[in-house]
Design brief:
Elements lengths: L1 H50 L4 H12 L11 H31 L4 H25 L6 H22 L1 H5 L1 H4 L2
Helix pairs in contact: 1-3, 1-5, 2-3, 4-5
Amino acid sequence: MATTQMAHAHDQQIAPRLQKRQGHAVREGVTIGLLGALAVMLAFFIADLVAGVPLRTPGLLGAALFHGARDPGDAAITVSNVLGYTVFHVLGFVAFGLGVSGLFALAEREKRVLSLVLLLGACLATGGALTAYFVAQWISEAVTPWVFLAAHILAGATMVALLFYFHRRLLREFPAAAD
């Protein structure tokens, strides 16, 4: 009986800490995703402004995503294409931010996982850069592939910097965790 009561008391102490940690990981993931998406959107907006065609990049990507446009000349830049693609883009970045934040939360509890998380992050960054480059080939008339790639590298750097900020203690412990 006493053992059961002690286990129940222990669970009551752990549950609030776990909920707080999960809430922190969600806020962190949403923040990381939103700021990563914002970095890409600002880079595209500036590139489109310099080219004299504001919102062309999200308009073209929205036309391709929602209407199957294959040629940038056939793609209509409409409010629905721009807003629809923007929502899709932000949700994708937030989902990615939540996933990465969850992995780092796991690494906070299990230090042995950190090496795997960092390796997975390097693979995802490479895959993301290649995907951005190949998508940029399609819209090369609207924005050069290097602008597209640079925007996503900027987003990746923003997200990594935020992860380093949120998990600086964990990353300082990395050499010891790798052993």
